[in-house]
Amino acid sequence: MRALAAAEASWEEGRTWSLVYHAGEEHTAFLKEAHGLFFSENALNPMAFPALRRFEAEVVRMTASMLHGDDQVAGTMTSGGTESLLMAVKTYRDWARATKGITHPEMVLPVTAHAAFDKAAHYFGVKQVRVPMGDDVRADPAAMEAAITPNTILMVGSAPDYPFGQVDPIEDLAGIAADHEIGFHVDACLGGFLVPWAERLGVPVGVWDFRVPGVTSMSADVHKYGFAAKGASTILYRSAELRRFQFHVTADWPGGIYASPSMAGTRPGGSIAAAWAALQAIGQDGYLAMTEQILDISRRLVNGIRQIEGIELLGNPLLSVFAFVGTDVDTYAVGDQLEARGWHVDRQIKPASLHFMVTPAHAGIVDRFLEDLQASVDEVRAHPELATSGQAAMYGMMTTLPDTGMLEEIVLQTLDGLYSV
Predict the structure, then answer these.
(1) Are 333 and 387 in contact (CB under 8 A)?
(2) How far apart are CA 384 and CA 339, in angstroms?
(3) Per-residue pLDDT band at 87 (split at 50, 70, 90)
């Protein structure tokens, strides 16, 4: 196992740009100890494990306070952002059915909203109406409002979105939702533990949280920029009355009364404990300092990328997430060249772009990365045929398929292969 671990992507050295949020070896060791203290406990039954009940309640309360929620805001922890978004959609579906009699629910969201909403739509029978983004690669309020129908139960905005790192115009969107008496969810799974501190540091993100009256729910992952152990997110609602539609109870089962607050049955105690420990250990001053460092790294990277001819940033990156496209070089071929130089990069479509998320682990690699990026762009410009080989050719082919069903089938076949023994 140690040998296999040594061959994984080198996230400790800042060579990856997603998936891992690392705040140093000392903090990681601390999280492991906190997690290990509650390794075997199961938060399925909070009455049996009152410490976990306390940890979860206090994580929810601290997160709500950070997001300017009042004492009426209620929520739960989940295993991650996807589960938080699943729970939000399920909650609004059941709320609309019970209070409005809507049996063919729809939700309106920008194309940049996380793919987990697509999963939620599929799982819970909610039609998603994806709206094109504006010229600033953010949600377009007028287009969003035009997509509302009598069956609309929910609108969504991101703070920030995953593809381009932009904070949607939450005040405008939430106002529209309030006017139409529908729910409005702010997906802050990615930035919930970063944007509050960035705002304090003067980043002009607008008003985006529970300060906006029309915001009825929010999600924020503690295991991202909260720097907790994997398996820790939060889903928060404006009131406990709305949260009740998230809960599930089976009262007539021979095995006893079965009640669960979220999607999971068994809920690992270690992740809940480590999330509480991270919030207590880092504290407001710690998060402010870490965010300042992350934003400094991000600005250095963004400014350096702007100096490289042949690539262009999408939107106006103000936070720690950004993407760029090739203007006179093949984007995916540049990605291949970065991979050849030891960088693990994420590729996006619509438009074809390379995606980056910055953490403290990237503090020491900015100059090296920019040098390698410049060399990669130069290599692709000198050898345009690189676009017809490697992953560049595969991604280029997939993004030009006329039928998304064909692309889905290719990915399903890939999944079959990955998960076959």
Answers:
(1) yes
(2) 17
(3) very high
d(CA 382, CA 337): 12
So what's the pLDDT on residue 89? 98
**How would you classify the pairing of strands 106-110 and 127-131?**
parallel
Mean residue pLDDT of the chain comes to 93
Lowest mean pLDDT among 137-151, 238-252, 298-312, 407-421: 407-421
What's the pTM?
0.92
Tell me the HSE value of 65 on the side-chain side, using a 13 A CA sphere: 9
Looking at the structure, tell me whether residues 99 and 120 fall in a common domain. yes
> For residues 156 and 234, what is the distance between their CA atoms, to the nearest angstrom?
17
CA gap 133, 130 in Å, rounded: 9
Residue 390 scores a pLDDT above 70: yes
Domain end among 218, 247, 281: 281
> Residue 2's pLDDT is what?
85
Could you report the per-residue pLDDT of 202-229, keeping only the tens digit for each?
999 999 999 999 999 999 999 999 999 9
Tell me: do 250 and 307 sit in the same domain. no
> Which of the four pLDDT bands, split at 50, 70 and 90, describes residue 406?
low
CA 96/CA 154 separation, integer angstroms: 9
Would you say 159 and 167 are in contact if contact means Cβ atoms under 8 Å apart? yes
Q: Choose one of 281, 308, 325: the last residue of a domain.
A: 281
For 197, the enclosing helix (H) or strand (E) is helix 195-200
CA 159 to chain centre: 9
> What residue numbers bound the domain in which 53 lies?
25-281
Long-range contacts, stretch 381-387, CB < 8 angstroms, 24+ apart:
381/310, 381/328, 381/329, 384/329, 384/330, 384/333, 386/330, 386/333, 386/336, 386/337, 387/330, 387/332, 387/333
Q: Are residues 336 and 229 in the same domain?
A: no
